[in-house]
């Protein structure tokens, strides 16, 4: 039965981009409206976008993301819908935690400190990451008045106000700035870390809020117990997830090697131009599931105002080096999932992830897989380094920090230029205005990591919601 009154049967829908966002949009569209003629137009010869897994020398290497969070449920729900949930594995239970580099040495993250919430006062008292003064300043958070102004604020400003400069420099900048490959002086609290803004407002502070969360979690644990861990990954790698979505779509839904160069309104429909094709293609509805800068480019000619707004979401990049070693060539006990590097340590490094510690099946027995992140918004010049220089400087870091000796068994370099959207202060208002402008363009929807979240579950949500808006004829 056709329950839809808004979108005619057999309407033509194009989704531009077959990353996780575009694939999610395609899946939910065809699920609810199998009558639609859906085409996913993908410039490259493969689906998955940033999700890329390769195998080399018996190692399973993630070139892009290596896991997703289950607290935001959309990615997990999609796995369940397509019969893929049994492929998910959880993070290892041993050797969790992270090291921070401090004055050239590795220091363990104080226990009980999750993201922005210190909850173990004893571990704060003992950590070498903060001076006596820095520790007292963190503890003063318990008595720091809450901010009454509700306007957006940067991560740097929020942290200095609540926890002090030292905690910002030595813990929060590397820990959180690293996740977003962002400049914390510009990163919007409201767009990325709203939970902590709410915590300050509702609980009076981060320590109080963190302690309350801890208590709630303990009482939850006494109940039925969570079915999934906080982070999961497919046992065969992230790309097996997007491959599974492709397999759940009707055959030939995705057209590879189709690079869209622009779109135009033509009477009641939208048309797209494709590189190398003289005739335009007509569609009743279009979802643009590309990065902010590509979307802005595609809209530039016919929708200059919208293009200008989307173009205000800048992108940063990072290089990810994957290096495999035999365990005997690594002196360090590797008793953590990774290392993050504060910018003030002045190293050519955002973070080192010890992939083989995080998940099973990432390296053969007796071997170690490292993933090293370089560049980001704070060190963009490192993205220009030639392969040889990049490998040399990374090997020096591995040797210095973890006692890694000898030649790597292999090195893979993934260069992700212009891929990580930067949610600057005012981002939420910017996206509100983009959604407002979209209301006057029938047939067009935008989805992807540029708008309301960069993590994979939020990309799935964005694609799903765009599909629902198309089906229901609603806007935003
Ligand atoms: C190095 C790295 C590590 C990350 N780690 C994690 C992690 O561990 N967990 C997590 O949750 N998130 C992580 N993220 C974020 C997450 O991976 C991304 O936000 C998400 O994959 C974006 O998906 P997308 O579909 O919106 O965009 P993309 O994956 O960029 O897909 C866009 C697609 O559009 C295609 N395209 C571009 N232009 C055109 C055109 N003109 N015509 C047709 N097609 C076009 C591209 O080829 C691409 O396939 C990471 C990101 C990076 C870069």
On the 0 to 100 scale, the average pLDDT is 95
Measured between the Cα atoms of the first and last residue, the distance is 26 Å
Provide the structure class.
alpha+beta
Q: Number of helical segments? A: 16
Q: What small-molecule ligands were found?
A: flavin-adenine dinucleotide
List the helices and strands and how they pair.
Blueprint: E1 12-16, H1 20-32, E2 37-42, E3 53-56, E4 59-62, E5 68-69, H2 74-81, E6 88-90, E7 98-102, E8 105-108, E9 113-114, E10 117-118, H3 121-126, H4 132-139, H5 155-163, H6 165-179, H7 189-192, H8 194-203, H9 206-221, E11 231-234, H10 238-248, E12 254-256, E13 260-266, E14 269-274, E15 281-283, E16 285-288, H11 292-299, H12 304-310, E17 315-326, E18 338-340, E19 351-354, H13 355-358, E20 367-375, H14 387-402, E21 410-421, H15 427-438, E22 444-446, H16 456-472
Parallel strand pairs: 1-2, 1-16, 2-12, 7-18, 16-22
Antiparallel strand pairs: 3-4, 5-11, 6-11, 7-8, 9-10, 13-14, 14-15, 17-20, 17-21, 18-19, 19-20
Summarize the model shown.
The protein has 476 residues and is α+β, with helices and mostly antiparallel strands.
Written account of the structure:
This protein is of the alpha+beta class and 476 residues long. It folds into three domains: 167 residues, FAD/NAD(P)-binding domain, CATH 3.50.50.60; 104 residues, Orthogonal Bundle (protoporphyrinogen ix oxidase, domain 3); 106 residues, Protoporphyrinogen oxidase, mitochondrial, domain 2 (Polyamine Oxidase, Chain A, domain 2). The chain is 34% helix and 22% strand. It has 16 helices and 22 strands. The chain is globular and about 70 Å long. The relative contact order is 0.19. The N terminus is likely disordered. The chain binds flavin-adenine dinucleotide (FAD). The site of flavin-adenine dinucleotide has 36 residues, from helix 1, strand 2, strand 17, strand 21 and helix 16.
């Amino acid at each position: 039965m056709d329950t839809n009154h808004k979108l005619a049967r057999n309407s033509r829908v194009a989704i531009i981009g077959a990353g996780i966002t575009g694939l999610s949009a395609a899946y939910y569209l065809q699920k609810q409206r199998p009558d639609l003629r859906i085409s996913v137009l993908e410039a490259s010869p493969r689906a998955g976008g940033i999700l890329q897994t390769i195998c080399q020398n018996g190692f399973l290497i993630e070139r892009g993301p290596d896991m997703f969070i289950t607290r935001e449920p959309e990615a997990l729900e999609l796995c369940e819908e397509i019969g893929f949930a049994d492929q998910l594995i959880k993070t290892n239970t041993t050797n969790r935690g992270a090291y921070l580099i401090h004055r050239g040495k590795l220091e363990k993250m104080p226990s009980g400190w999750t993201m922005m919430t210190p909850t173990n006062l004893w571990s704060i008292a003992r950590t070498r990451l903060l001076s006596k003064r820095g520790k007292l300043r963190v503890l003063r958070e318990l008595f720091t008045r809450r901010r009454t102004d509700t306007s957006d604020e940067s991560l740097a400003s929020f942290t200095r106000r609540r926890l002090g400069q030292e905690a910002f420099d030595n813990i929060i900048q590397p820990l959180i700035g690293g996740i977003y490959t962002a400049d914390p002086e510009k990163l919007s609290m409201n767009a990325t870390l709203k939970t902590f803004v709410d915590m300050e407002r509702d609980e009076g502070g981060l320590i109080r809020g963190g302690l309350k969360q801890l208590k709630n979690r303990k009482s939850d644990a006494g109940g039925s117990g969570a079915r999934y861990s906080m982070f999961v990954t497919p046992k065969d790698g992230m790309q097996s997830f997007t491959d599974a979505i492709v397999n759940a779509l009707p055959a030939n839904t995705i057209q590879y090697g189709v690079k869209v160069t622009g779109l135009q309104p033509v009477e009641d429909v939208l048309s797209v131009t494709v590189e190398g094709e003289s005739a335009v293609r007509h569609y009743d509805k279009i979802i643009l599931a590309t990065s902010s800068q590509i979307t802005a480019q595609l809209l530039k000619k016919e929708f200059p105002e919208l293009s200008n707004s989307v173009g205000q979401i800048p992108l940063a990049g990072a290089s990810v080096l994957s290096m495999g070693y035999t365990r005997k060539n690594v002196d360090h006990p590797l008793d953590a999932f990774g290392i993050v590097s504060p910018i003030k340590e002045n190293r050519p490094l955002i973070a080192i992830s010890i992939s083989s510690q995080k998940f099973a099946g990432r390296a053969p027995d007796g071997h170690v897989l490292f993933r090293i992140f370089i560049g980001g918004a704070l060190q963009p010049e490192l993205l220009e380094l030639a392969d040889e220089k990049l490998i040399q400087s990374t090997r020096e870091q591995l040797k210095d920090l973890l006692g890694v000796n000898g030649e790597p068994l292999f090195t893979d370099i993934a260069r992700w230029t212009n891929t990580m959207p930067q949610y600057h202060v005012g981002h939420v208002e910017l996206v509100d205005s983009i959604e407002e402008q979209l209301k006057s363009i029938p047939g067009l929807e935008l989805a992807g990591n540029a708008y309301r979240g960069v993590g994979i579950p939020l990309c799935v949500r964005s694609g799903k919601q765009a599909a629902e808006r198309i089906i229901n004829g609603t806007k935003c």
